[in-house]
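Reviewer 2 asked us to include a model.

Predict the structure of this chain.
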Amino acid sequence: MAVRIRLTRMGAKKKPFYRMVVANSESPRDGQFIEILGTYNPNTDPAKISWKPESLKKWLSVGARPSTTVENLIRSSGVLKETL
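Predicted model (structure tokens):
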């Protein structure tokens, strides 16, 4: 089972926000997930990102691969500079 850290879409039409979750790579985008790691709200100015850094470190250490978008969010927020 390949595990990915990715975004799931939440919110209303035209007003999305996203949860950053750990999920099986074969699950659908908004399907089952293992754990919620944080949220990303692009509707605020500036966009709001919140994380659980200890959970993120744990999942990265056991081999979960972040999606491209999540990796960019991690880098831009500066949560884990030493890990990526």
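Residues 68-77 form the longest helix (10 residues). The chain has one domain: 3-77. We have added this to the supplementary material.
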